[in-house]
Sequence to fold (369 residues):
Amino acid sequence: MRRQRALLALAAAFSAPLTAHPLDEASIWLYEGASSGAKARPEAKAPPEARTASGGPATLFMTVFSDGGERQITLGDPGARPRARPKEARGAWTVSLGYRRELLDFSIAGPGGVPNILSELEWETNMAEIRLNGDWVAANGFTLSGEMAYASGFSGEVRDSDYLSNNRGREFSRSYSKSRGSTESRLAFGLGWRIVPGSRVGLTPMLGYTYQEHDLRARNGRQVVSNYGFDVPLGPFRGLDMHYQPRWHGPWLGLRFDARLAKRFDLRLGVKHQWFNYRAEADWNLRGSFEHPVSFRQHGNSRGWQWDLGALWRLSPQSAITFTLDRQEQRMRGGTDRVFLSSGQSVESHLHGVNWDSWAASLGWRLDF
Fold:
């Protein structure tokens, strides 16, 4: 009856000077044109042709009588199939643990460009990584994504070589050390638009920004080459605790493809092209001729790519197990290297480039909301 009264009030508001006379649960009659002498017929029943979608009588309709005749208006049909619910926004959090392997190297020229390669260093680090990812997709396809990650090195090796002649000639020093204790942090976010939202297969163009930094360590040194008057004895040496701290940040453009291949199995493939600004500081703690804690700075611009492949197995509508593989690379060419001497002077030389490659595999748990 509440529904009848509400509909009756709405009809009265738009059909004045109609007056309403509810008679029973099945019918409502309106009297139109009181001056015409027409009368409401309380004995009328719902006509047999007024049927619901399920075959039963209409629960709520109105018949209007006027001097021009009578007409019936059906107001509701509770037996009709309900409309589909509008698409809703959806989101997910994913926590994952995994293994990451990183390779980074750089080389610099001597003052004035001679020799063309004075020094080069290579880091190889094995890391354990924890990562948090968040995704949110609106009903119209607007997409937000974010990532926080932290990795800690548990093993690896560093090579440091120095040369007196061009093209790596007359190597006068080479040492190896351990990269254990190196770390990496990463923060990234992106936004995009999922084409064909709500479907089983989607393509999402995206753009975003990434900031990541490293603290690459070198400890437990071992000298293996000492020539041309370089007076460091061969073998292990104590006190080495070098820090090399590169930072990468900048925008990226990407494309993400996702597909539901089975009721519980999803697949995702993503690619990003990145433009990063590169900055690095270092502390060569055993070099007495260098300033501390900042022995030199480097800067330049780099470009790179990131690829990731992910699979998801649903345990329930709200949770799933995830597996992800990803690869990243950055190439920086033509930067500068400025050394700060303990005398207060500084010397600038050419930074040939920095190469960074990273591979990772992770297993995670996802919660949908």
The first strand starts at residue 19 and ends at 22. The radius of gyration is 37 Å.
